[in-house]
Structure formats: C-alpha cells, structure tokens
Amino acid sequence: MDNESLISSLRQERDRFLAFAFCRADLLLELSENHKIVFVSGATQAIFGRSVKELIGTAISDLVLSHEGPVLKHLLSGMVGGVRPNPMNIDFKSKSGKIQPLSLTGYYVEDLEKHYFISCKIPASIAATSPKTMRQAGGDIVHDRVSFGQTVTEHLKSNPEDKLTFIELEDYEDFAKKLDKDAQSELSETINSYLRASSSEANSAASFGNGKYGLISRPDLDIDKLTDEISRQVKDADPDGVGLKVEQASIALADSGISGGNAAQALSFMIQQFAHDQSENFSLADLAHSLPEILARIKKTAERIIKVTEGGDFVIVFQPIIDLKTREIHHYEVLARINDETGSPQDFIRSAEDLNLIKGFDLAICRKAIKWIQNNPSDEYTRSIAINLSAASIGDADFIKQLTPLLTPLKDDPDSLLFEITESTRIPDPVVANEAMQTLRNLGHKVCLDDFGVGEASLQYLRQFQVDVLKIDGSYVRDALEDETSAHILKAIADLCRKLNTKTVAEMVEDEATTQLLINCNVDYGQGYYFGRPCNDISIFEEPDKPQTTGQRSGSKETWV
Question: Residues annotated as region Disordered (predicted)?
Fold first, then answer.
C-alpha cells in the first residue's frame, strides 16, 4: 500500500470512529494536559459561535460561565486514574454571550500525552416542581425541597453507599441584606456550582432557600473541604469581609441502619423538616449526633398519623362563611381536631404531608364529612360544607380515583359538599390537579382555591385551574385597615375574580370595620371570629337563641392546618 492509500485508509478509520462517537455526542473535544483544546469536531458554530480554528489552543475554562469553574475542574480531575465519570451538565457560553448547557463525560489517557477526550451532548430539559416550568439538569438551577426528596428516594434504591449532606449558612437572612441583588445571585450561583461539582450525578444538589442546601455525594467526598470552600466564598462576598459560620451534617446511608421504604420515608421527612424556614424539631446537631433518635421519632410520628387516620381518631368542627351583604350563612368550612390534642393540628398536617401520608388523612376527612351530611339533613337551614384537600392529594392521580366513589351518596345533592385546595405544599403535577378539580366540578361539587396570595404560584394557579371560589389569604385582610396597599390588592383580586366569574372569600374577618372594607372591595364572602369560632355543634350558628362564640383572634389564621 502506498503512502497516499495508507493516509486515505487512516482517514476513513478516523472518520468511522468519529461517526460512532457522534451517535452519542454533539461535540467532541481533545484537551491537553493543561486543559487547552487541541482537537475539536462537531457543532462548534452553533454552540460556541466560533470556528474550529478559533477554538484550537483555547483553554476550556474560558468557554464556561465563571461559576461553573468548580464543576469543570471536578469533572476533569475525576477522569485521572482511568475513571470515566457520569455525565455532568455544565453551562458554556458562546461568543455572543448565549448560554448553552452541555452534558459532558470523557476519558483521560495517560499514554496519549496525558490528554483528555471529552464527549459533549446538548441535554434534554427535565420537569421541575419549582415555579419555573422547566429546569435544566445543569446550570445554576438545582432542586427544591420537593424534587430533592424525590431524587433522594430514587437514588437510595441503587446507591445506598452514598451520603446525604445538609449544609446551612447561619444567620443567612440577615447576611443577605448586606448584599445587593446581583451579589446575592452571584453567591448563590457559586455555591450551587460547588454543590453540583461535589454531587454524585451533578444534578443531585438542592437549594432550599435562606442559606440551606442539600447534597447527595459519593462516600469519599471530603465534606469539610467543601464547606471550607463555601465559607471562603461567603467571606469574599461579604462587604465586611467577615462571612458566616457554615454548618453541615451527613448521613452515611449504608451505616444508618435504615433500608427500603422506611429509609426513603425517613430521609424524605428529614429533608422537608430541614428545608422548612422555621423548624423547631430538626437541627444539624441532632442529625450529626442522634440519627437513631431522629429515626425513632419519625417512626413514632408516622405511626401516630396512620393510627389517627385509620381509626378516625379525630373530630370535625365547623366555621361559618357569610355572605357579607346579606349576613346569611353561605356554607361552613370543615376543620379537623385531633383527639387528645388541643387547637389546630398544624404540626400533624405538615408531618402527614412530609411523610406522604396526607392522602389517607384527606380521604378519612372526606368519609367523616360525607357521613355527617347523610346523618344531619335539614330542610330549614343551609348545610353546605367545605372540606380541605392538600395540594399533595389533589395533584396525585390515584387520590381522585379513590375519592370519586365516596361521593356517590351525594350525587343528588352535590352542592352539599365543596372542596378547598390548600397550598400548604406545592402541587406536584398541576395538569393532574386540574383534571381532578374538573372531575369534582363535573360531579356538581364546587371547588375553591385556598390561601390565594401567600404562595409563589398563586397567579399561575389561577391561570391553570378553573375554580368556582377563591379564598384570599388572611394576611391581606388582617392588614387592610392599616395598610392601603393590602386594601388595593384585595380589591384588585376581587375585581379580577368577578371578571372570571369566580366568587371570593376573605379570611380573618375580626370586626365590623373590616367587614365594611371588604364589601367596598367587592369581596363576596367572609370568614372569621367576628362571625363565629369553629364549633362541633353546627346549630349554634343556625339558632339565634343560642349564644355564638365570637371574639378577637389571638393567633394565626383558623384553618384545617
């Protein structure tokens, strides 16, 4: 074979290998020992806005966003020693400044001049539970508490040897006030990048807000080194050069003594507890030193919830919702009271949601309320009642399948039962949730969206869901007399709902002055201690001769939670 034929054969062989490589990649890179590009092939113009000639000799670090440096460094260092790392998503930038995430993996070859061979693929978007409709597995967006809990549960099934770590920047809320918006964003992006670089799969890190983070990592990750680096970044961002104390605690899953569904439930519960802004039942010190006690506490809590649910160990009480203009009772909200406990079962409900046990409790409430309707008919008084359903329940396709048969006894009088969808937790699947709401509405039951104005997704929910009633969060009502902005918001919500043919309910109505303000704002109904405290005897609201319990509220709003 002559030289020309040999060269042609080698080129064909090269092109054949490139063709195989491009079956799994959009771009191929070869890097020198000092991470400069020595070979590139693929969609260079589309991704970088640069030609092959322009890219040769460029350091790959110059092509990524600045806060992605730790992730890139971690990826490349992980290849040394003959290891091919799992794909890791990194944000690159084009010549024009456009951001393009790429999923990278590759191989380091000692015998080929210590070069790195990188395969780059444009990643698919994955669904998220956050208000953003889509989230990239790479980039500076990481999991929120809901999606992270789901990720940990799935990860545990096949990787029990990995670690779950919680990280907290103490007093972060006060610290953040010293930073402008850009500085806060830059610090957040940098911390998220360090977490992603340290995570086992590059998308197994979470930011819960207010300086709290979560991470799934390999067993050999040096957590102290990671937190030291985060601490240094915080100090650099501090205008005073002081920084914050960074606390961390890790669970070695294989050594925790938990397994299977119990482990997933326990870990998910711990994540939710840690992520809550003001959790008095969970601390990093507890996690670091008292894991068995925490697990025992979680088990006891779950057993208590199951016992209450299955045994119906609770009662229902009623609070009237009044037509503000006529002062007649429109319907009643059903509130749960756990036997042997006093006051609102807020902690019980939150724990049920965090442990994924709320659907069973919601169904138990429905059974008890439906039975009450059947046993307490009245020709003289309106006895329509509203049941609260957790967002976690209504967003679960199996829940509505279990609920629908329970409603059969009310098919001739569906107005006797309404449903309020609470936003104490984020709706996991808005499409499924809306389908469930429309199923209830098609059966003749009215649906109310509760807590409007308090959650991030309230306006989004109003657009996504067709509902009959909107309940305005009590915080606006409570402040409306003293705060002109709150009053304007009340009126704006009421006017919008009228255009949507949706009725409005205002919570926390405490006096006549507030009632008149709500009437002037065109709010339809009111609920609060001014019209009646929750009571297990509904006749107290129907018979004028019976004393009604009214008064000023001393605590938070009165709901099922």
Answer: 542-561
pLDDT digit string (tens) for 151-163? 777 777 777 778 8
Q: Which domain holds residue 105?
A: 18-121
Is-contact 526 333, C-beta < 8 A? no
Pairing of strands 163-169, 329-338: unpaired
Instruction: For residues 526 and 448, state if they share a domain.
Output: yes
Asked if 104 and 153 sit in the same domain, the reply is no
SS3 per residue for 435-471: HHHHHHHHCCCCEEEEEECCCCCHHHHHHHCCCCEEE
Q: For the chain, how far is it from start to end, CA to CA, in angstroms?
A: 83
d(CA 274, CA 284): 8
Q: Please, what is the Cα angle at 211 between 289 and 164, to 5 degrees?
A: 45
> Three-state DSSP class for 363?
helix
Span 11-58, pLDDT tens digits: 666 555 545 454 567 888 899 999 999 998 888 888 898 999 999 999
Q: What's 163's domain CATH number? A: 3.30.70.270
How much is the pLDDT for 512?
A: 94
CA separation for the pair 350, 152 (Å, rounded): 20
Indicate whether 99 and 22 sit together in one domain.
yes
Is residue 10 included in any domain, yes or no?
no
Q: pTM of this prediction? A: 0.64
Strand 503-506 relative to strand 525-526: parallel, antiparallel, unpaired?
parallel
Domain assignment of residue 415, yes or no: yes
